[in-house]
Each structure stands twice: as C-alpha cells, then as structure tokens.
Design brief:
single chain; binds NADP nicotinamide-adenine-dinucleotide phosphate; Rossmann fold; binds ligand G4F; 345 residues; seven-stranded parallel sheet
Length: 345
C-alpha cells in the first residue's frame, strides 16, 4: 500500500514542490487548506491534479485532530506558517499563534490520534506517524559562528525567529518526552518561480521582467549588504523527505554553503536581461528591518553525509530560472492581457 503524507502549508512554495516530489515517489498526498474559499487552493489543485485536500487551520486544535484522524498519515510535514519575517514585527501575536502554538497543536493532534498520550508507557516508542517541522536559519540570527551547523547556538533577531526557535524545541521535546519520530529541518533561504512576491529574490525577478518590458522604471530595496545562502526550493524538499526516512530521528541543517549579498541578486538578475542594476535600484530606508540578520551560511555536512543530499541548482542558475519565468509570464500578460494572469503559478 502506498504511504500517505499530510502537508500543512500546501498552498505555499514548499508545499507544492514537496507534494510533487512525494507523488513522484508513489505517495498519496493530502494538503491541509484553510478558509472557505481559499484561491490558493484552486491554484495548487490545478498545478497538481493528484493532490487530495482536507480542511484545517493551525489556529484550531480540533481541526488538526480531525484532519490527522481522517487522513491517517504515515508522515506529517508542518510547512504552514506566516513566513514573511517583517510581518512578525507587525503582528507578533498572530505569528506566535500560527508559527509557534501551531506546531504544538500539530504535535498534539499526532499524539492524540496515535495514542501517544502516556509518556511513560510510550517511552522509546517507534513506528507511529513521523513528523517534520519547518525550522529556519532565522533562528541563528546574529550568528555565533560561520558557517552554521546543527550545534551552532541560536540568537534570533525577529519575533519570527524567536517563534521558530520555540517550534524547533517543542518538536525536540516531543521526541524526548513521547518517543515521537519528530525532526526539524533547519533550512536556509530557498527560492523558485513559485516564491511569494514579497521576498527579495522574487521581488527582484518580477521587477526585472517589468523593467525589461518598459512597464516599470525603478525598484526599491532595503539593505543591499545582507548576505544569505540561497538555494532552490525543489532541491530542499528532497531533504525534507529524506529526513523522515532515517532509522533515528535527528535535526539537519540544509543549505548550499555559498553566500551572496542582496546586491549580488540584483546584479545577476538585471544581467540576465542585459541591464545594469545600478540604473534601476533605489534604496528605501523604510524597508530596512528593526533588527537585521546580516549574514547566514550553512554547513550541511551532516545532511550530505547521512542523507546523501546535495543541491543541484546553483545561485546563478536559480536567479536565471526566476527571471526567465517572470519574463515569460510578463510577456504573455503584456501581449494577451490580464485574462491570462493566474493561469500559471
Ligand atoms: P509560504 O510560501 O509563505 O507558505 C506558507 C503556507 O502556510 C501557505 O500555504 C499558507 O496557506 C500556510 N498558512 C498560513 N497560515 C496558516 C494557518 N493559520 N493554518 C494553516 N496554514 C497556514 O512559505 P514557504 O516558503 O513554502 O515555507 C514553508 C515553511 O518553511 C514555512 O514554515 C517557513 O516559515 C519555513 N521556511 C521557509 C524557508 C524559505 O526560504 N522558503 C526557509 C526556512 C524555513 P494559505 O494559503 O492558507 O495562506
Ligand atoms: O527575502 P527575504 O524577505 O527573506 P528572509 O527575511 O531572509 O526570510 C526568508 O528566509 C528565512 C530563512 O532564513 C525563512 F525562515 C523565512 O520564512 C523567509 O523565507 O529577505 C532577505 C534579505 C533580508 O536581509 C532583507 O533585509 O533581503 C533583505 N532585503 C533588502 N531589501 C529585502 C529587501 N527583503 C525584502 N523582502 N524586500 C526588500 O525590498
């Protein structure tokens, strides 16, 4: 019988790539969707027709218990979150509820449905529903060392980072308290043509396409000196799956090990269409964050050695992929009108 996976955050970037990957491996994949007419559900169901859906919300414990009970999954991937870091200064309580307590609620739903409700009785238990938590390199924040490994200490710089650190530790705690197979992937920034338009790489690739077609002149950015370890989302979802296939549950850092600045992203993206970034980028101090994560770089030695994982798309290839996708889509919309917008991701 095929394995069943339940994915929260199915309408997001990673949810869609993970679902495609698991379906290609023969899984029956269920996505948790919220709201009564979520337009992003239609978008992902058009993209992945084999996907099944179950209702639920990370803010609602009962809905998560019902979803886990209905699907009876072998693996649960908790990718659902408010993932845009600046929002966590604007609505810290909401972000704490979804990104922090939401992890606890998902773990509790698994514990209840699996009958893992008596710590002593379940000590050393194995073979129940396996759980993946989407931890983040934002937890490293003001980094204690470079590159960062699984043992680098955390110093989060945003409410988002603080709350992700809670999710990380509560997952570890359920592993230690109940013998649950629960792991956290500490993933560094990963992007794709499906990335939200609010994140810096996609903001740049979308603007480059518009500027190339003469539909926009300037692009406002914040801190150009920030350094990130950017990889391709399609590569990173393979690591998520591999983490749940190991004999022993443990946490892994996942990244490319290569660092670039926001300025590098802009330079490479504009070069893709034969333009000079300096002619178009303007600095908006309002986009600078209250507390910045200046630099992030992964040491994924453990993932490479123990999971056999390696990224396939490099930095330049990633930026090219995003610019080409946005340029193609912008050309279609420009030529045929807005009737086509929304047809692709
Ligand atoms: P994303 O594109 O922003 O997707 C976020 C998903 O969370 C959406 O499907 C959204 O669904 C869902 N969600 C939001 N609030 C919810 C709620 N109350 N209940 C249930 N679902 C809810 O994020 P992503 O880039 O795919 O990232 C996936 C996960 O990895 C997130 O947890 C993120 O924090 C983490 N992460 C991402 C990166 C990265 O570079 N991409 C790096 C490290 C960690 P709706 O359509 O209903 O809004
Ligand atoms: O693309 P970003 O918004 O991503 P950020 O904040 O690093 O967070 C992403 O990666 C995390 C993993 O490390 C995830 F956990 C999180 O969910 C999310 O996926 O910003 C990247 C950098 C920042 O230093 C920011 O200050 O780009 C800088 N930046 C400069 N100008 C900008 C802009 N960021 C955005 N979004 N927009 C700008 O105009």
């Amino acid at each position: 019988m095929s394995k069943r996976a339940l994915i929260t955050g199915i309408t997001g970037q990673d949810g869609s790539y993970l679902a495609e990957h698991l379906i290609s491996l023969g899984y029956q994949v269920w996505g948790l969707t919220r709201g009564q007419a979520n337009p992003r559900k239609d978008r992902v169901s058009r993209l992945i027709p084999d996907l099944r859906f179950v209702d639920g919300d990370l803010m609602d414990q009962g809905s998560l218990v019902s979803a886990v009970d209905a699907v009876q999954p072998d693996e649960v991937y908790n990718l659902g979150a408010i993932s845009f870091v600046p929002m966590s200064w604007q609505q810290p309580e909401l972000v704490t509820e979804v990104n922090g307590t939401g992890v606890l609620r998902t773990l509790e739903a698994i514990r209840m449905v699996s009958g893992l409700n008596k710590p002593a009785a379940r000590a050393g238990a194995t073979g129940q529903i396996r759980f993946y938590q989407a931890s983040s390199s934002e937890m490293f924040g003001k980094v204690a060392q470079t590159p960062q490994t699984e043992t680098t200490s955390f110093h989060p710089r945003s409410p988002y980072g603080v709350v992700k650190t809670y999710g990380h530790y509560i997952t570890r705690n359920y592993r230690e308290s109940y013998g649950m197979y629960g792991v956290s992937g500490i993933l560094f920034n990963h992007e794709s043509p499906r990335r939200g338009a609010e994140f810096v790489t996609r903001k740049i690739s979308l603007a480059v396409a518009q500027i190339k077609l003469g539909l926009q002149e300037k692009l406002s950015l914040g801190n150009l000196d920030a350094e990130r370890d950017w990889g391709f989302a399609g590569d990173y979802v393979r690591a998520m799956h591999l983490m749940l296939q190991q004999d022993e549950p443990r946490d892994y850092v996942v990244g490319t090990g290569r660092m670039h600045t926001v300025r590098d992203v802009a330079r490479v993206a504009f070069e893709c269409v034969g333009l000079n970034w300096e002619d178009h980028v303007v600095i908006d101090p309002g986009l600078v964050r209250p507390a910045e994560v200046e630099t992030l770089c992964a040491d994924s030695g453990s993932a490479r050695k123990e999971l056999g994982w390696a990224p396939e798309v490099d930095f330049t290839g990633l930026i090219q992929m995003m610019v080409e996708s946005d340029l193609g889509q912008a050309q279609l919309v420009h030529e045929y009108g807005s009737v086509l917008s929304g047809v692709r991701w």
